[in-house]
Amino acid sequence: MRIVETVAQINDNRKRAMGRRVIAAAGGDVRGKKIGVLGLTFKPNTDDMRDSPAIAIIQTLQDAGAQVSAFDPEGVEQAKLVLQNVDYADSPYAALDGADVMVLVTEWDAFRALDLSRVKSLLRSPVVVDLRNVYRPDEMARYGLEYSGIGR
Length: 152
Prior knowledge:
Helix 7 links the parallel strand 5 and strand 6. This protein starts with a helix and ends with a strand. It is an alpha/beta fold. The longest helix is centred in the N-terminal third of the chain and has 24 residues, at 2-25. Strands 3-2-1-4-5-6 form a six-stranded parallel β-sheet. The chain has a single domain (2-148), classed as NAD(P)-binding Rossmann-like Domain (Rossmann fold), CATH 3.40.50. The chain has seven helices and six strands. Helix 1 (2-25) packs across helix 2.
């Protein structure tokens, strides 16, 4: 039983580390900042929130004082059962409107097709943290977005 508990703790710590990565991309402090989170479910094409990294990431951001606006194509109703004090948007663009940072958590196809010019115009600062490496760094730079991926 200890092995299972240890593995669960390590997994939670890794998810919280992703939240700290977002904080670092925001300049080290998110107190009073709006973070636009795209993707809440464990994986695309489901409403399953079990073990979703979005839970720990959002909690880490909220603990640091961020206000979170989020969108997921399928999982909002399930997310409402486990995440408190989140502004749930009706589109990815609404979630990003006025946000200081965009964070991609779940790799839904709809997020791959975002109009990046529109994304940049909606963000207060052009910072994108892509936790799934969906976007290409050179493409993000072409749109004037400050990009942070995983392992790049």
